[in-house]
TrEMBL record:
Source organism per UniProt: Janibacter melonis
Entry annotated with the keyword Zinc: no
Name of the gene: argH
GO terms for cellular component: cytosol
The protein's name: Argininosuccinate lyase
GO molecular function: argininosuccinate lyase activity
Catalytic activity: 2-(N(omega)-L-arginino)succinate = fumarate + L-arginine
């Protein structure tokens, strides 16, 4: 016979179809250790409020200890008739501590405040894991940047050659967004450090239980100010889903570049064998599957966030059963990142850059034209004119199939009297890089300082 939590009012148990629909143990079982931690804290406040004598309290705590050990060893698992993790664990406790002890635990709490609390605990733990994985990707980018302090590459806008930049500058441009994602996780954690335990079903508890005591017992900074908010709010889930999706998108942009760089046409990087795959038919193939899967899975995380927001939209206060749909998307987001990030960190750490090829392509596509224009400005020419003159240089070169530095003194003079042979001093990648020496620029001295600041930020997070 099915045991339900609400037997008194009902003549019979749920239909098979309802039971099947209701069931969540296949995804919420991962909350079991947190549920037991919550029950231990709840046992203590029940005792504190005079609702459990010492003997019963100790029997309850011992029963919960045995239950936790059995959950961790796999000896206790949810059964066919258990609706959710909370129901299953109550059954497990009663089997271990007896109905008289186990049956007292539910006083003054509801699955509504329970699940809101456990979910926060679980997500806070995993947000920390995700942050560590993100920091490992940043560390790989830092290592690669430090290993290539002088290497130049074509910087692009619209995927077209734009201006030469340092490879390290480019790699660090991928590190900063990831550091901000970690910062977002830290700020989210501080906001999520409030325990809803004691909110009860929605209105709070009448039994003199102390929510602050439970909160500190469970590692929260405090308890929520409003029991309705405590049981109904899921913005902490949506916010974490967003940060996960954002991190996945940031990783996807890095991955896309690795995929491009590994093509024959770019030829910028070689992937390590341990981070690439072959083809079952084409013997020569070496595929960037890590980067492609990371790019592909970003789509899942965007879907996880969108699905969750759609579930939350227009839900009236307080708890609604719809909220049971809050878990799978964010579990998927976190699981996916925990799978993707270590692979991406390894892929980045083992990339081999063809710095010669990158450097030789850096000035191609007339990427020094801006340097010509800015040289003219330093010579006192208005930028509007300077832009025209540099553009004319490009046009002449394009017509003749030559590069800017191939223009003769006569060519230069013919294009504009402002163009003296001295302009050649900026027609080199080194000169161009070194000249962009304001804070945030790609000059090697500035990038070395930037690398130091990335390291400091990394260490502070
Ligand atoms: N399993 C539910 C959830 O995850 C918690 C139970 C609350 N159910 C209820 N009928 N009040 O949201």
């Amino acid at each position: 016979e099915k045991v339900s939590l609400w037997g008194g009012r009902f003549a019979g148990g749920p239909s098979d179809a309802l039971a099947a629909l209701s069931k969540s143990t296949h995804f919420d079982w991962r909350l079991a250790p947190y549920d037991i931690a919550g029950s231990r804290a709840h046992t203590r406040v029940l005792h504190g409020a005079g609702l459990l004598d010492e003997t019963t309290r100790d029997a309850m705590l011992a029963g919960l200890d045995t239950l936790l050990a059995d959950v961790l060893s796999g000896d206790f698992a949810p059964g066919e008739d258990d609706e959710d993790v909370h129901t299953a664990l109550e059954r497990g406790l009663i089997e271990r501590a007896g109905a008289d002890v186990g049956g007292r635990l539910r006083a003054g709490r509801s699955r509504n405040d329970q699940v809101a609390t456990l979910f926060r605990m679980y997500l806070r733990d995993h947000a920390r894991v995700v942050a560590e994985h993100l920091l490992a990707v940043v560390a790989a980018l830092v290592e690669q940047s430090a290993a290539h302090p002088e290497a130049a590459m074509p910087g692009r806008t619209h995927l077209q050659h734009a201006q030469p930049v340092l490879l390290a500058h480019h790699l660090l441009a991928h590190a900063w967004p990831l550091l901000r994602d970690v910062e977002r996780l830290r700020h989210w954690d501080a906001r999520t450090s409030l325990s809803p335990y004691g909110s009860g079903a929605l209105a709070g508890s009448s039994l003199g239980l102390d929510p602050e005591a439970v909160a500190s017992d469970l590692g929260f900074a405090g308890s929520v100010e409003n029991s309705i908010d405590g049981t109904a709010a899921r913005d902490f889930v949506a916010e974490l889903s967003f940060v996960c999706a954002m991190a996945a998108v940031d990783i996807s942009r890095l991955s896309e570049e690795v995929i491009l760089w590994a093509t024959k046409e770019f030829g910028f990087v070689t992937l390590d064998d341990s981070y690439s795959t072959g083809s079952s038919i084409m013997p020569q193939k070496k595929n960037p599957d890590v980067a492609e899967l990371a790019r592909g899975k970003a789509g899942r995380l965007i879907g996880d966030l969108a699905g969750l927001l759609a579930t939350l939209k227009a839900l009236p206060l307080a708890y609604n059963r719809d909220l049971q749909e809050d878990k799978e998307p964010v579990f998927d987001a976190v699981d996916t990142l925990e799978l993707v990030l270590p692979a991406v960190a390894g892929m980045v750490a083992t990339l081999r850059f063809d710095t010669e090829r990158m450097a030789s392509l850096a000035p191609q596509g007339f990427s020094l034209a801006t340097d010509v224009a800015e040289w003219l400005v330093r010579e006192g020419v208005p930028f509007r004119v300077a832009h025209e003159v540099a553009g004319a240089c490009v046009r002449v070169c394009e017509e003749r199939g030559i590069e800017l530095w191939d223009l003769s003194d006569d060519d230069l003079a013919e294009i504009s009297p402002h163009l003296t042979p001295a302009v050649r001093e900026v027609l080199s990648v080194e000169g161009s890089l070194a000249s962009r020496d304001a804070k945030g620029g790609t000059a090697p001295v500035r990038v070395a300082e930037q690398l130091q600041r990335v390291r400091e930020t990394h260490a502070d997070l």
